[in-house]
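To the wet lab folks,

You asked to see what we're planning to order before we commit. Fair enough. Below is the target structure as tokens, and below that is the sequence we designed to fit it. If anything looks off to you, flag it before the synthesis order goes out.
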């Protein structure tokens, strides 16, 4: 393996390039935009976007965010951080900007990538020994096909297109959705638009940056202890206890958290009390409540309605609850679609199942597609770290140094995880099954064991069990010499988990 091709220069593509360059490979990275950053690139970031987690969690293990950044950095600050990362590790000279891969196929033991230089329209083909797809799960904005949308006389936009707040000033604005981008844009609009409406199918749980205005969210959501309260597909002994004899503890934990959120956000007064359990929702779509969002709903600055759009006629939006709105701008905070249109259909059918879910072992590869890996398709609330560990895992896979089960057991594991997402935890199917949250530690531990590395930075188990995740720990762990992980032990572990 000499020449590595990487598609996408977001955070996952950058950390993958850094890992392969560090291992002595030649790297070419294709990026269709004019700059790095992916979802954080300025032309794709809505005004006021910020991280969901703090600067200490949303960082690479060997490159901390600047200490003068606020605890929750803005999108512009994240973009500067990624730029500094790319400069520091010498990644930029290997990137072809404004270049899109149109067709990726495997022939005669090599990958052929047809690409187009977008400004000039010039096309060419390049050959690679190994390919890493790092386009991420937020690359294709999703806008519903509303009946009558073609007749709309206003602007129909995706939330990622609200790059300038002045676009909303003095306008009648309606926002569709209840995810992070939808509530962020609605909160922004409420301060500058003449009217702001929020249309949502069902209320979702949101969490504050500080629970009870005192406790940072990381202490309640980002530890091995908190992860144990979720019904994982692979359970530790403590998890097995919790979800059998310890079920009353689990029930009290979640009902107590719900009570805290109901009280802190005054959800009943806002008419935004979710009808589902919070533990059934927590995943990558878990949103941090924008500052002042619920207060603006309560005082009417945001006119929220639990309904859907029936049809559009001119500047009038007819709703399924029988009411109608006249708006100038309709913003869809309705997420993204996950596609691989550039990948040859012969290989794409292995990777994407009939229901559109990705079928990848460890969210990284499929055993029937040679020399192709995915990074960033193991998204979490701190994707910088999960992508970094996946990138290091992929380098070792390319080198042939991973200790993995036989291909038939890998296929069985892929099937097991697909069935679990469908029947055991439906929310795990969001983002086409590419989200590993809330089982972040389970996923990271699997990758570390595959590499023959330790899973904790210290031997003090109580400390490791209760402390929030810390990317700096993995700088220590990745620097360790790989430990021998017998093939039989890895195979038995996977077989037992599947059983």
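Sequence we intend to order:
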């Amino acid at each position: 393996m000499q020449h590595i091709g990487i598609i996408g220069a977001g955070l996952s593509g950058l950390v993958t390039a850094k890992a392969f360059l560090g291992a002595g490979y030649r790297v070419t990275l294709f990026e269709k935009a004019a700059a790095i950053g992916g979802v954080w690139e300025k032309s794709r970031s809505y005004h006021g976007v910020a991280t969901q987690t703090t600067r200490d969690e949303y960082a690479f293990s060997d490159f901390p965010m600047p200490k003068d950044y606020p605890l929750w950095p803005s999108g512009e600050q994240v973009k500067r951080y990624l730029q500094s990362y790319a400069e520091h590790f010498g990644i930029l000279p290997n990137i072809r900007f404004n270049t899109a891969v149109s067709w990726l196929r495997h022939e005669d033991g090599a990958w052929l990538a047809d690409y187009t230089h977008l400004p000039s329209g010039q096309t060419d083909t390049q050959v690679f020994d190994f390919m890493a797809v790092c386009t991420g799960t937020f690359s294709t904005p999703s806008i519903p096909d509303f009946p009558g949308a073609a007749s709309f006389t206003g602007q129909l936009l995706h939330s990622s297109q609200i790059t300038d707040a002045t676009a909303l000033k003095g306008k009648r604005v309606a926002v569709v959705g209840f995810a992070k981008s939808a509530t962020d844009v609605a909160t922004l609009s409420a301060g500058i638009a003449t009217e702001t409406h929020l249309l949502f199918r069902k209320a979702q749980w949101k969490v504050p940056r500080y629970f009870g205005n005192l406790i940072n969210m990381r202490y309640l959501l980002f530890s091995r202890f908190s992860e144990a309260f979720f019904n994982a597909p692979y359970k530790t002994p403590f998890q097995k206890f919790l979800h059998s004899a310890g079920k009353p503890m689990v029930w009290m934990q979640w009902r107590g958290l719900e009570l805290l959120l109901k009280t802190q956000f005054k959800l009943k007064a806002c008419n935004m009390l979710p009808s589902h359990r919070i533990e059934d929702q927590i995943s990558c779509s878990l949103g941090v409540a924008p500052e002042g969002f619920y207060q603006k709903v309560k005082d009417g600055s945001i006119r929220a309605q639990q309904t859907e759009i029936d049809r559009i006629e001119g500047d009038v939006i007819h709703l399924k609850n029988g009411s109608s709105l006249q708006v100038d701008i309709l913003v869809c905070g309705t997420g993204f679609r996950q596609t691989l249109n550039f990948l040859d259909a012969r290989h794409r059918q292995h990777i994407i199942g009939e229901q559109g879910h990705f079928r990848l072992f460890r969210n990284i590869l499929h055993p029937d597609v040679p020399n192709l890996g995915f990074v960033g398709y193991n998204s979490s609330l701190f994707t910088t770290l999960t992508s970094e560990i996946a990138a290091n895992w992929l380098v070792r896979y390319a080198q042939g140094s991973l200790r993995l089960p036989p291909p038939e057991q890998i296929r069985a594991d892929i099937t097991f995880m697909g069935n679990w997402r469908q029947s055991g935890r439906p929310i795990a199917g969001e983002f086409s099954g590419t989200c590993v949250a809330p089982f972040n530690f389970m996923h990271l531990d699997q990758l570390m064991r595959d590499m023959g590395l330790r899973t904790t930075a210290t031997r003090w188990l109580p400390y490791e069990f209760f402390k929030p995740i810390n990317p700096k720990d993995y700088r220590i762990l990745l620097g360790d010499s790989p430990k021998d992980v017998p093939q039989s032990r890895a195979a038995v572990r996977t077989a037992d988990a599947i059983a």
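Structural context that might help your review: The chain has 16 helices and 22 strands. Confidence is low (pLDDT under 50) at residues 485-499.

Thanks,
Computational group
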